[in-house]
Design a protein that fits this description.
Elements: E1 14-18, H1 42-55, E2 59-63, H2 73-82, E3 86-91, H3 98-107, E4 109-115, H4 121-128, H5 133-147, E5 150-156, H6 165-174, E6 179-183, H7 190-193, H8 195-198, H9 202-218, E7 223-226, E8 252-255, E9 260-262, E10 272-273, H10 279-285, H11 287-293, H12 307-310, H13 315-322
Parallel strand pairs: 1-2, 1-8, 2-3, 3-4, 4-5, 5-6, 6-7
Antiparallel strand pairs: 8-9, 9-10
Helix pairs in contact: 2-3, 3-5
Cofactor: [4Fe-4S] cluster
Keywords: 4Fe-4S, Iron, Iron-sulfur, Metal-binding, S-adenosyl-L-methionine
Protein name: GeoRSP system radical SAM/SPASM protein
């Protein structure tokens, strides 16, 4: 279904909500380490969740920071679940033991994604800045599965792991997760500061995606998810996807710890605040979202036969590195 045939949604299907900025790790690619905004009080957060549910949002994915460091996460999740929202979370896994996994299940979490950056413990631990974090992440997956929560692994592809697809798949299969998410490297926060050390060249991205697509087609009992629009250059976009190009601002929205709404966690443009603004109105009338939904080809995108599927690639990355969301994705290997 193309952008042309998809009716404009009245509200995002999913909201990625960073309810806190605190974190017990020091990851080399973190987008939120420089975000020191205040966090919403619990009663304000509750009323904001009510607004979100009434607007017609389907699911909330809690993030941060590390969401488990929020003192009221379980109560907040239970409240959101009670409103009919589907509740999930991304975590580094450090704080998830058997008891915590059971509490998460009781609070209404249907899915929890654990970040694992490498199959090698020493590489993951160094990248995350915490010794022992790899072992705790793997153990968290076991605890969550035993508690009856669907699990996934999230891996941000960069120089430390781009040639280890088979090994990462083996970890996912061993831990019986439902999904392995290969996320494209962004250039936000520390990701920008460490870009030269971590990001791949366009040619290397092409090699990675060729191998990842091959794995996706051959590996059974595991959904390998590739969220990068530029795989359209390899004719690999999912035919069932609801939109072309980036989903940010079309299917999903980001809310920061202080309530500020942004198109995604990697685009630091505030388009409103959930406390004071009407979500549906912002979703409908935001000039920033309108521009994202109607990108115009520039540069090498102008004559590219794949543009209608790719729509210039990752908008966040283009904006971060060029200052223009219509610019071609810097990861693009096309001519």
């Amino acid at each position: 279904m193309s952008n042309e045939t998809l009716p404009q949604l009245q509200a995002p299907l999913t909201i990625n909500w960073a309810i806190n900025n605190s974190c017990n790790f020091a990851c080399s690619h973190c987008y939120s380490r420089e975000d020191t905004h205040e966090e919403l009080p619990r009663d304000v957060l509750y009323s904001s969740l009510e607004k979100v549910a009434k607007a017609g949002v389907f699911s909330i994915n809690f993030g941060g920071g590390e969401p488990l460091l929020h003192p009221h996460l379980l109560e907040i999740a239970a409240f959101a679940s009670g409103l009919g929202l589907r509740v999930s979370m991304n975590s580094n896994g450090w704080l998830i033991d058997q008891a915590k996994a059971a509490e998460l299940k009781q609070a209404g979490f249907t899915k929890v994604g654990i970040s694992i950056d490498s199959h090698r413990a020493e590489v993951h631990d160094s990248f995350r800045g915490v010794k022992g974090s790899h072992a705790r992440a793997l153990a968290a997956l076991d605890h969550l599965r035993e508690a009856g929560i669907t699990t996934s692994i999230s891996t941000v592809i960069c120089r430390i792991n781009s040639t280890t697809i088979d090994e990462l798949v083996a970890v996912a299969l061993d831990k019986r997760v439902g999904q392995l998410n290969f996320h494209n490297f962004k250039c936000s926060g520390l990701g920008m500061a460490n870009k030269d050390d971590l990001d791949l060249t366009p040619a290397e991205w092409k090699d990675f995606y060729r191998a990842a697509i091959a794995a996706k087609h051959t590996v059974k009992d595991l959904d390998i998810s590739l969220d990068d629009p530029i795989i359209a250059l390899l004719d690999a976009r999912d035919a069932g996807t609801l939109v072309k190009g980036s989903v940010c601002g079309k299917l999903s929205l980001n809310i920061k710890a202080n309530g500020d709404m942004t198109p995604c966690g990697f685009i630091p443009i505030v388009i409103g605040n959930i406390v004071r603004d009407d979500l549906r109105q912002v979703w409908k009338d935001s000039a920033v979202l309108e521009k994202m939904r109607n990108k115009q080809p520039t540069g090498k995108c102008s004559g590219c036969s794949k543009y209608d599927d790719c729509l210039g690639g990752c908008t966040a990355r283009a904006l971060a590195l060029t200052g223009d969301m219509n610019s071609p994705d810097p990861h693009c290997w096309g001519n």
